[in-house]
Specification:
Length: 417
């Protein structure tokens, strides 16, 4: 039997065994605290208290390293034998967030008790994050001496990751994610969070115009008795009205006329440009089985007009589905308390940034569709984000140093990553 296997647990030098025990104990303690608090949502204090707490933590970490760096426990905390189990524990929490949907109402009593739907704001995540920051802080301080180009790569890597964890932990309570309803030709400066709390912002927004570009609507065949879409080889079948003719289920369709915005007069539809105008099409349908033909209009309907289907026979009808948006955008006039006054257009995946706020195009009045006079915006403010970016930049710089200068001598077993 090897000497390592004969070593008693907690006898120095500590190994992966103690690292695993400590990591598992931290996670179990965290879940126990979360359960005893009935799954409460934990929030870090806002600025400036969170900054003060961070400075105290940094001061305590530096004091611990300067005066106790020769202690075996401190040496072990700066080793890979402590870091690897901690990283695996942190990874477990991150993976758990990927498997359990976050920021939604819990579906089970266990999910509510353990806070599984808001893991970032729970005891186990906060404790394992704190533990990992302590390990990173110690190994970062160790890399300060001797400070040379080879050591610089390791220092930048670890210090960059430390900054990312440090800033995300402290800045979580300062980040604001708000929703604002803007109506055309009205100025709005109030927004609400997920709980419905109203905030008055230093940014006032006036919706000048809201635009939607739509795809051609789709058509499908439904069963007259059940109203369900007819299955074709076990699958629902839909076709886009972007062609003059095509086959759908057992029918051949010829599009004789298509109107993207129309109103009904008598038995026909005519192109109009007024609120609530809906897409419509005149089609000729041939049953491929018995060669019978049916002609008529179909319409997707809107909040003004009723949808209209074309009865093909006793079994089936042809229906047009509401058009899906290709893209939607808002033309905004934005004024700030700092004196800025500008006009811009935002759309999905093309936000606009001003005075620390990022404005996203979120939604609109889906019932009114292309005629919506409401644009729903999301406003996000994260004052700690520049620190996160700095940490990422330092990690990239550290990777560059390691690529150019390689590992420092005698550094293969002492670093965290």
């Amino acid at each position: 039997m090897s000497k390592q296997s004969n070593r008693q647990t907690w006898a120095h030098p500590w190994s992966y065994r103690e690292g695993t025990i400590i990591t598992v104990a931290i996670l179990l303690l965290g879940f126990a605290l979360q359960a005893t608090s009935s799954g409460m949502v934990l929030m870090v204090a806002r600025f400036p208290l969170n900054l003060l707490a961070g400075l105290v933590f940094l001061g305590a970490l530096i004091f611990l390293f300067v005066f106790w760096q020769k202690h075996p426990a401190i040496k072990w905390l700066g080793s890979v034998k402590a870091a690897l189990p901690a990283i695996l524990g942190f990874t477990f929490m991150v993976l758990l967030m990927g498997f359990v949907k976050q920021d939604v109402a819990p579906e089970t009593a266990l999910a509510k008790l353990l806070g599984l739907n808001h893991l970032v704001k729970t005891w186990p995540f906060i404790l394992i994050n704190l533990y990992l920051m302590i390990l990173l802080g110690i190994v970062t301080l160790k890399r300060l001496t001797p400070f040379n180009l080879k050591n610089a790569g390791f220092f930048l890597n670890h210090f960059g990751l430390f900054l990312v964890l440090f800033s995300t932990a402290l800045g979580s309570s300062d980040m604001q994610r708000l929703r604002m309803n803007c109506y055309e030709e009205q100025t709005e400066w109030r927004a609400v969070d997920n709980s419905g709390k109203v905030f008055e912002l230093p940014v006032a927004i006036k919706l000048l115009n809201f635009n939607i570009d739509e795809f051609r609507p789709k058509v499908t065949v439904v069963d007259n008795q059940t109203g369900q879409v007819v299955l074709n080889k076990g699958k629902n079948q839909f076709e886009l009205l972007d062609r003059n003719s095509f086959d759908l289920y057992q029918y051949h369709l010829e599009v004789e006329q298509f109107l993207d915005a129309s109103g009904k007069v008598g038995e026909s539809y005519f192109q109009v440009n007024e609120p609530g105008a809906a897409p419509s099409a005149k089609v000729k349908v041939t049953n491929l089985a018995d060669r019978t033909e049916v002609s008529g209009w179909i319409c997707s309907g809107s909040y003004v007009h009723q949808p209209e289907a074309l009865k093909l026979n006793d079994q089936h009808s042809l229906v047009m589905l509401p058009a899906e948006p290709r893209k939607f955008s808002s033309e905004l006039n934005i004024q700030t308390k700092s004196g800025k006054n500008l006009t811009t257009t935002i759309e999905v995946n093309r936000p606009f940034k001003i005075d620390g706020w990022t404005i996203y195009q979120l939604s609109y009045n889906t019932e009114m569709g292309r005629w919506s006079n409401l644009s729903v915006l999301e406003l996000v403010r994260d004052p700690w984000l520049p620190v996160v970016y700095l940490g990422i930049f330092l990690m990239m710089a550290g990777a560059g140093f390691l690529f150019l200068y390689g590992k420092p001598k005698n550094g293969g077993t002492e670093h965290v990553a």
